[in-house]
Design brief:
With 289 residues, this protein is an alpha/beta fold. It has two domains: 2-59 and 121-288, Rossmann fold (3-Layer(aba) Sandwich), CATH 3.40.50; 62-117, 2-Layer Sandwich (Alpha-Beta Plaits). The chain is 37% helix and 28% strand. It contains ten helices and 13 strands. It has helices spanning 15-28, 77-81, 102-106, 144-161, 177-183, 197-212, 228-240, 253-261, 265-268, 273-288; strands at 2-8, 33-38, 52-59, 62-67, 87-88, 91-92, 112-117, 120-127, 130-137, 166-173, 188-193, 216-222, 244-249. It has a nine-stranded mixed β-sheet with strand order 3-8-9-2-10-1-11-12-13, with helices on both faces. Strands 4-7 form a two-stranded antiparallel ribbon. Helix 7 (228-240) links the parallel strand 12 (216-222) and strand 13 (244-249). Helix 4 runs parallel beside helix 5. The termini are close together. It binds iron/sulfur cluster (2 copies). One iron/sulfur cluster is lined by residues 67, 72-78, 90, 107, 109, 111-112. Residues 67, 72-78, 90, 107, 109, 111-112 line the site of one iron/sulfur cluster (SF4).
Length: 289
């Protein structure tokens, strides 16, 4: 079983459109896949596939203090020691509480207990292309790397149970902890970039991360024809750094149409320029697999 991640140094490069099309093309090649949306702040891969929810698990990524009224002797020690001002009238404000546990440590009356907080959910859905594992972190929750690790672990369990060939991961944009958690241990990272100065800058940053994990990096320049000079500069950069450019995808209004219709572009119009490039790109990519 192989694991691949589709990543980008910044948002808006078309990473999820590429992932959606690759999922379709992988199935057309008779690969049994599991796909995982590891962008837990703004998951959107599910918007491209009709799905049926099979399972919803609570994700506990943080804790919150609670005071047992009957045990509290109103000594104010916890109030004085809470750096976040989360305790008032011997009650904890769950929004302000950071779960540090200091109140629990200093309470002389054993009146504070720490409870797991629901920080988000992990969903497993059934689609025509295979199981999809996706998550959603509640607003304000920070342990996003940990929920991504759990999404990946769940994807692996399903893939091993069903003897599937491939796990395809749609990672969050950037180089933060969600992306680090999405990349560790994958076989190939496909980096989707765009022909702008910031696209090149963000590509350089994410290449550093991919190389750190000793993952085979492949690059695709999306909407390359919006700035062909810049696309050339990115190609030069890739050549100098011995990075494989997989394919350049032209700007194509059909992609927007596909997003609005909620289907991957290769299903929406397989003859448009973007779809043709994606189909060729999948051919090359599957050779790396
Ligand atoms: S766990 Fe930390 S932040 Fe929360 S109430 Fe206790 S001391 Fe304050
Ligand atoms: S430290 Fe314990 S006993 Fe004192 S006010 Fe806080 S909860 Fe109550």
């Amino acid at each position: 079983m192989k694991e691949v991640a589709i990543v980008s140094g910044k948002g808006g490069t078309g990473k999820t459109s590429v992932t959606g099309s690759f999922i379709v093309l992988a199935r057309e090649d008779k690969l049994d896949i599991v796909f995982a949306d590891c962008d837990v702040d703004a998951p959107n891969l599910h918007l491209l596939f009709k799905s049926e929810l099979m399972d919803r698990e609570e994700y506990h990524g943080s804790r919150s203090a609670e005071i047992k009224e009957e045990e509290c002797i109103e000594c104010d020690i916890c109030v004085d020691n809470c750096r976040f001002g989360a305790i008032e009238d011997y009650k904890v404000d769950p929004i302000l509480c950071e779960g540090c546990g200091v109140c629990n440590l200093v309470c002389p009356s054993d009146a504070v207990w720490m409870r797991d907080r629901i920080s988000g959910y992990i969903f497993t859905s059934k689609t025509d292309y295979g199981p999809m594992v996706h998550g959603l972190l509640r607003a304000g929750e920070e342990s996003s790397g940990k929920i991504v690790a759990e999404i990946r672990s769940k994807s692996r369990t399903i893939a091993e149970r069903d003897d599937r060939d491939l796990i395809m991961i749609d990672a969050a944009a950037g180089i933060g902890c969600q992306v680090i958690a999405s990349l560790s241990g994958v076989n190939i990272a496909l980096i989707v970039t765009e022909p702008t100065k910031s696209g090149l800058h963000d590509l350089e940053r994410i290449i550093g991360l991919v190389k750190h994990f000793e993952i085979t990096p492949l690059v695709c320049i999306n909407k390359y024809d919006l700035n062909e000079d810049m696309a050339e500069e990115i190609e030069d950069y890739c050549e100098k750094n011995e990075l494989g450019i997989l394919k350049k995808i032209p700007f194509d209004r059909s992609v927007e149409g596909a997003i609005n219709a909620g289907i991957p572009v290769v299903k929406h119009d397989e003859n448009c320029g973007a779809s043709k490039a994606l189909i060729e790109m999948w051919g090359e990519f599957s050779e790396y697999l």
